[in-house]
Amino acid sequence: MSRSADPRRAASKLVRVAPTAYLGLVSEALPIILTANAAKRVAAIASRQNKPAMLRLSVDGGGCAGFTYRFGLAEEPEADDTVVETDGVKLVVDAMSLELVQGSAVDYVEDLGGAAFKVQNPNAASGCGCGSSFSI
């Protein structure tokens, strides 16, 4: 079966986000946001690697605070994925991870400590110093 004919691929939800959307605009219609700065960085990375401009965010157990954010370039969304789009770049989140990051914003931050994707998660009760893990 070809990828385009796979019925699991057609069922993901796509929500387009205006480039100026941030945390205050997250709602049921926008369960998570990819900021314009993060979208720009994903597009640059994807272009260098000749991949689609699609960032997958998932949450794994572990890390110093209980859960860890995982980022990677995605090829295609799965059936239960939620997909939001900012400036032509897609953020893909699986259903289980979305329960933990609902209402969050994914941003790209450059500061003295380095450069990284950061999740501003209103559900997190605490997090680690590096920002890559959290607890609920």
Report the radius of gyration as a whole number of Å. Answer: 15 Å
Distance between the termini: 40 Å
Shape: globular
Largest sheet: 7 strands, mixed
Widest β-sheet, arrangement of strands? 1-5-6-3-4-10-9
Q: What CATH architecture label applies?
A: Sandwich
Please characterize this protein's 3D structure:
The protein is an alpha/beta fold and 136 residues long. The chain has one domain: HesB-like domain (Hypothetical Protein Aq_1857, Chain: A, Sandwich), CATH 2.60.300.12. 18% of the residues lie in helices and 40% in strands. A seven-stranded mixed beta sheet has the order 1-5-6-3-4-10-9. The longest helix has 13 residues, at 36-48. Residues 1-28 have low confidence and may be disordered.
Topology:
Blueprint: H1 7-10, E1 13-17, E2 32-34, H2 36-48, E3 54-62, E4 66-73, E5 82-86, E6 89-93, H3 95-101, E7 104-111, E8 114-120, E9 126-127, E10 133-135
Parallel strand pairs: 1-5, 2-7, 3-6
Antiparallel strand pairs: 3-4, 4-10, 5-6, 7-8, 9-10
Features:
10 strands, seven-stranded mixed sheet, 136 residues, alpha/beta, three-stranded mixed sheet, Hypothetical Protein Aq_1857, Chain: A
Brief overview, please?
The chain has 136 residues and is α/β, with parallel strands linked by helices. It has three helices and ten strands; from the N terminus they run αββαββββαββββ.
